[in-house]
Amino acid sequence: MAAREGSTFKRCGCRDETGRALGVRCPRLKRKGGGWSPSHGAWAFQYELPRTTDGKRRQARRVGLATHTEASEGLERVKTLLGLAEEDTEVQIADLIQIALQGRRPLPEVEEVRKRIGAGTDVRRESPSVREWLDGKPDLAEETRSSYDGHIRKYLTPHLGKIRVGRLQARHVEAMFAAVEEANVHVLECRESEDPKVKRLVRGRRVISLSTKHRIRATLRSALSDVVRSPDLPVSVNSASHVRLPSRPRKRPLVWTADRVRQWEKDGTVLGEVMVWTPEQTRTFLQHARRYTWLFPMFHLIAVKGLRRGEAVGLPWANTRLVDGQIDIRVQVVQLAWETITSTPKSAAGQRTITLDADTVKILRGWKRFQNEQRLQAGKHWNHTGLVFTRQDGSGWHPGQVSDWFCRIAKAAGLPPITLHGLRHGAASLALAGTDVKVVSAELGHATTHFTQDTYQSVYPDVAKAAAEATAALLRGEPVSVG
C-alpha cells in the first residue's frame, strides 16, 4: 500500500471580520506561552484513504474531538485498519471506514475486520436484498400496513426485490417506474382496441396514477431510511430520495355548476377527480335520503359536519353528547380490502370534538328514539354494538356498503356523481364560506389550516357572484355591505 499522509489538528468555528471561517488559524487556539488552549476549539484528524472503485479521492476525517489523545487514537485506528488490507480488500476497508465516519459511528474494531479477512469474506457486511429488508419492516398501523404491503407485492418486490439494498441506486427505481408507465400505455391501448379479445386482456387492470407512484416511492423511501440509520449496514444514501418523478398537483375540488351539469348530462363528462355539489344539490340529496330511515341521519351528519366515512360508521353513543351538542371523534372504522378494523384516528388532530347545530341535534335525538324503539322490538335479536348508526338489527354498517348506498341514492335523485368523500368536501366548503378557517380546520381534523384551504375549499357560484358584484360596486363608488 502506498504511503499516505495523515494528521491531527485543532480548529474552531470563529470567523474574521469578513465572515470567513478561521478554522486552524484562530489565534485563540493557543495560549500566550505557545501551548494549546484547553478551553477553545476541538481536535480532529484526517487521513488520505484509498480511492473509490470509481477512482475518486477521499479522506477519513473526524472533527469535534475533545482531546488530542482521541484524535491521535482515531488516526492510528484508521492506519491499523488499512494496514490489515490485502490488495483486494483495501478499497473495502476504506469503504467501511468512510461509512462509519459519515454515519458518525465508531470506527470498526480491528479484531472484527481481521477475522473477516481471515475467513475470506467480504470485509463489509453484505446488505440484505430489497425483498428481505421490506419483509422485515417494523410494525405499522394496520391501514398503513395494507397499503405498504400492496406496494411491496405489486411493484417493489417484482422490480427491485433481488437487488441488495447496499447496491440499490436511483436508476433502478426510475427503471421500475418506467416499466409501470409502459404497462399503463399497454392498458390504455388495449382499452381503445376494437377487438373484444384484446380488451379482455386488460379487464380489471387499472392505470397507475402519478399519486400512486409518489406513494410507492414514499413507501420505499421510508424503508430505506431505516437502512441508512442501521449501524450494521454499509449504506449512507437513501436512493429513493433521489428518484425523479413529476410533481404531484393538489387535487382541487370543482363545483357542479349548471354548465358542468349540462355537459355531464350531454356526454357524461366529469371535469375533475374531486367534484362537489352545490348547497342546492346537497339539499336535494338529503331530501331523497330521508326515505332511507336507517341511513339518513348518518348522511346528514357527514353533509353538515364533514365527518370521514370511517368516523361516522364507528361513532359510538358514548362519544355523542346531545345535551352539550357535541361529538368526540376518538375512533374510526378502517376498511382493508373488504375486512374492517376499529382504530383511533392516525393523527393527533384527527382526535377532536365537533360542535353540532340545533337542526342536527334534533335529527340525532329523533334517530335515537327510533333506534331505541327498534331495539325493544328486536329483543334478544338486537346486536348491542353501542354505535350511533346501525342496521336494522343493531349491527354496524360496513364502510363499503355506506358508499354503495350513497351512490345509489344520488343516482336515484338525478344528481351528478360525487364520492361520499366529496360530501365531506362540500361540508368543508360550506363552512369555509362563512366560518374562520381555524375553526373549520380543527373540526375537520386537519393538522394545518393551509391544508384545509388548499385541498377542501371550493368557491360556490353564488359566493363568487356576490364577490364580483361587490367589486363592481366599489368601482362605481357605491357603498358595499359587509357580512
SSE inventory with pairings:
Layout: E1 6-11, E2 42-48, E3 59-65, H1 68-83, H2 90-102, H3 110-118, H4 130-135, H5 142-160, H6 170-192, H7 196-201, H8 210-229, E4 254-255, H9 258-267, E5 275-276, H10 279-289, H11 296-305, H12 309-313, E6 320-321, E7 326-329, E8 332-336, E9 339-343, E10 352-355, H13 358-378, H14 399-412, H15 420-432, H16 437-444, H17 449-456, H18 461-475
Parallel strand pairs: 4-5
Antiparallel strand pairs: 1-2, 2-3, 6-7, 7-10, 8-9
Helix pairs in contact: 5-6, 5-8, 11-13, 11-15, 16-17
What features would you describe in this structure?
With 483 residues, the chain is mainly alpha-helical. It folds into three domains: 113 residues, no CATH class; 113 residues, DNA polymerase, domain 1, CATH 1.10.150; 214 residues, Intergrase catalytic core (hpI Integrase, Chain A, Orthogonal Bundle), CATH 1.10.443. The protein contains 18 helices and ten strands. It has a three-stranded antiparallel β-sheet with strand order 1-2-3. Strands 6-7-10 form a three-stranded antiparallel β-sheet. Strands 4-5 form a two-stranded parallel ribbon. α16 crosses α17. The radius of gyration is 32 Å and the shape is elongated. The mean pLDDT is 82. Pfam families: Phage_integrase (PF00589). It comes from Nocardiopsis changdeensis. This is Site-specific integrase.
